[in-house]
Amino acid sequence: MHLSGFDRFVWAAGFCGHLLLLIVLFARRRASSFPAFTTYIAENAGTTVVLYFVANHLSFDAYRHIYWSLGIVDEILQLLVVYEIAVHVFCPTGVWARDVRRVFVGVACASTLVALLLTWLAHPTAPRQIQTFMLRSNFFSAALMSELFVGMVVLSATAGLPWRTHVARIAQGLGTYSILCVSRDIIVDYVGLSQHRQLYNELSHFRILTYLACEGFWIAMLWQEAPAPRELPESMRAQIYALQKQLEDDLKRIRTWRRK
Amino acid sequence: MRSLYFAVLATILLLALLGILLQHYLRARRRAQASWDDLLKQLRWVDRDKLARIALDVIDESGGRSQTEGSFSLEPPEIWSLLGGLDGLEVLEHNCQVLVELAAYVQKWYPEALVVAEQLRLNAREIEWHVGRLKGAAQTGNIQSAFADYAQRAAAIYYLMTRHVLNLYEQASIPGLAELQRAL
Asked: Which residues of chain A lie closer than 8 angstroms to B53, CB-CB?
């Protein structure tokens, strides 16, 4: 399988980025808070090595087979990362907030349905059946991730559940990447591969460079510490006690009013 | 033809996602920049005595169902008058939205008060739900029958919620406690 200089560069950059990100996740003790995300990054690092080896030493058919097998694992892990983000945002006290649980399930179901419907409509032309399948599944994956990401943003804003710093950064990276992939896949699935191979290659490079940018974003953001919680100001204590007293007086007044 | 439908629908989906994202991003950014005082200034005045009268008709001080003689005695027209009708409920709804934002602020900056903040947020959301039901009833012409039930529940929850707010302040020593108490 022939690899261009650019292919070799992005392969190496992707692997180094994943490795660096893993170092950041463990060195800054983020891995325990984000096990699914850490596994996803580790899987990506492993995939890069395996595919590079297969591309250089085995047949194209073997490469395609392994690429798709690992692609399924990658998709499952991405969904687990989404779930992990949802747990961080929608379980502020350790259990699912009762006002968002059912809505979140609804958002997930609706997102899957819309992504499936659009994927069914997509009919990209490609020389091989497997390539058609590849293009459609790429679109499905990107559309589903984008919808889930936007759904979570809307749901958290409506419910008033804040995003903590590192969760927000992971979601921003993954969400931005997914939305850009959707825009790429719409073009690719519409024009097809048969007559626009060059366009496909350029858009693929765009996708890879976007992912590398996301990696850089995650490395920089996850290296930084989240803003520290604010300390209880001593000067406020007197005011709090005064207010508490005021509240008690209020309640006494209400009780008196009830007895009348 | 099918590819064209796909391209059009997928583009609409993409634009919709981007629009929604931008709208919520700007909203979240405004919220992140808002200080505690800015949020407090958004609260609208509520007559606490009238609110307490509606609430304590159905609940006791601990929030349980009132068992005293004479409870559940308020008639719908009286509740309507005490609360100020649908306008009064909309004030409660507005204040609930502000309280949801206050709870988010506390959850973000004062995690030691997380549990109370979450309780506050859930209560505020519940009142929003009741007000939503009332608005739905108004649209279908059933406002009179639905008002007493939903309005009194909303008032009772709001009443309890304001007490949670004060506890929240107590736990986290959040600046602006006096202003909030006056507003609520």
From this structure: 257
Q: How far apart are CA A147 and CA A128, in angstroms?
A: 29
- Read off the pLDDT of residues B144-162 as tens digits, 9 standing for 90 and up: 666 666 677 777 777 776 7
Could you tell me the residue ranges of all domains in chain B?
1-33, 35-183
Contact state of B104 with A150 under an 8 Å Cβ cutoff = no
Q: ipTM score of the complex?
A: 0.79
CB pairs under 8 A between A and B: 139
B48–A250 C-beta distance less than 8 A: yes
Chain B, nearest residue to A238 by Cα: B173
- Taking CA–CA distances from B98, the nearest residue in chain A reads A160
pTM: 0.77
- Rounded CA separation A169/A157 (Å): 16
Sign of CA dihedral A75, A209, A13, A37: negative
Lowest mean pLDDT among A26-30, A253-257, B94-98: A253-257
- Domains in chain A: ranges and CATH: 5-227 (1.20.1070)
